[in-house]
Amino acid sequence: APESPLSSAEESVKSLGEQGGGGGGCGGGSSQVPLREPSEPSESQPGTPLPVPGHSGLSIQEMVAMSPELDTYVITKKVKEVLTDNNLAYMKRRHSSVSESQTADSGGLSGGDFSQGGSPQHGLGHHLHQQQPPQQHLKKARVVLAPEEKEALKRAYQQKPYPSPKTIEELASQLNLKTSTVINWFHNYRSRIRRELFIEEIQRGEGGSPSTRAGKASEGDSCDGTESDGTVEGTRPGHEHHPASEGEGGSDHRDDGTTSATGSNAAGTSGHHKGGALDSLFSFPESTHVSSASVATTTAARNPRDSSLRKKKAANLNNIIHRLEKAAGKDEPHEWEF
DNA sequence: TTGGAGTCAATAGG
DNA sequence: CCTATTGACTCCAA
C-alpha cells in the first residue's frame, strides 16, 4: 500500500535534483528538463529511471508492480507529481499560439480576421465562448454549435457520412460555420459513432454479428438515410423545445441531400434570417438520432470486461511510463511487462 | 490528402 | 469539484 504522499514533494525534489545536477556539465541534449536547484545533496539513485516521490525511491513501474492491482488513482497521482517535479506539467499544448496558425480554414472568408476578437463568428446561436480575455491572443475561443446546427449536420451526415469538400463548403456557408469546423465535426462524429458501435458490440457479448449494426448503424452507414430515420424514429425522445422548429412537413426529402440543400427554398434569403433558412434547408420534424447516441453513451462503458480493461489500462500505463521516461531525458526507457 | 485514432481542453451539468 | 460532452488538434497510415 502506498505510503502517505505528503512527503513526496520534497523527496522527489531531492532525488530528481541529484539526478540532473550530478554529472556536472553533462549537458547532453537532455537538458530539456529544467531541474530544480539541488537544494541539498542527497543520495543519488543512478539506476532508477524515475524516482517516485513518496515511495522512498520506488519508480512508478516498481510501485505498480508491487501492487496486485492497478491502482490508477495512485498511479495518476504519482505521474502528476513526477511531471510537476520536472516542470513538465501545466505546459500548454505544443502550439497554443493558435493565433498564428489559424489552420486549414482556407475556405473561409478572406481577411485574416483572426485576432481573437476579430470575427465574431456570428451565426445563429452558435456562439463562441469568448470570455474575451484581453490576454493577447493566447487562446482560441471554443466554438459551440447550436442545437439547430448540430441537427443540420447530423442530417447531412445521414445523407453523406463522407461529404465532398464541395458539400462541406456548402454546409459551412449555409450554417455560417468555418469549413474547418464542419470538417472537424464530421471527423469527430464519425469517430464517435464508430466508437459507440464498437462498445455496443462488445457489450452485447461477443458476436459482432452483422445484425448488430442494424439498429445503431442507422446512425452512420446508410447513405440513403431513409430507413434510418424510420428505425430511430420510434425511440426519439421528442424533446426539442424549439418552438421555431415547426414540423413543417414535407421538406424532408431533398432528393440527394447535400447539394440539394442549397437548391431548395429560400436559399436566396440565407444571408440573413438564419433560422428560417435553416429550418427549411435542414428541416427536421423529428430530432432523429440524438436518442440513440446518448443511449449508447449512457449504457456503454459500464460493465467492463475485466481482462480487456486491465489490458487497456496496462497498455496505457506503459505508454505513460514510456513518455515520462522520455520526457525525463532517459535515453532508453526500459522494458516493462505487465 | 484524407481519414482514423488518440488526445487536449473548454464548457456544461450534476 | 467532478464528470461528460465535444470542438480542435496531432500523428500516422493508406
Radius of gyration: 26 Å
* Morphology: elongated
> What is the percent of helical residues?
40-55%
Number of discrete helical segments:
13
Strand percentage lies at under 5%
Instruction: Note the gap between the termini.
Output: 18 Å
Structural class: mainly alpha
- Largest beta sheet: strand ordering: 1-2
Mean pLDDT: 50
How many DSSP E strands?
Answer: 2
Q: Stretches where pLDDT falls below 50 for ≥5 residues?
A: 1-56, 90-137, 207-306, 330-338
Q: So what's the oligomer here? A: single chain
Q: Could you give a short account of the major beta sheet? A: 2 strands, antiparallel
Q: Which sequence of SSEs, written as H and E, runs from N to C?
A: HHHHEEHHHHHHHHH
Keywords: Coiled coil, DNA-binding, Homeobox, Nucleus, Phosphoprotein, Repeat, Signal, Transcription, Transcription regulation
Protein name: DNA-binding protein SATB
GO cellular component, one term: nucleus
Subcellular location: Nucleus
Topology:
Elements (H helix, E strand, L loop, with lengths): L7 H14 L38 H7 L5 H14 L12 H4 L26 E2 L12 E2 L3 H13 L5 H11 L3 H25 L8 H6 L8 H8 L24 H6 L10 H8 L8 H10 L6 H22 L11
Antiparallel strand pairs: 1-2
Helix pairs in contact: 3-13, 6-7, 7-12
This protein binds a DNA duplex (14 and 14 nucleotides) through strand 2 and helix 7.
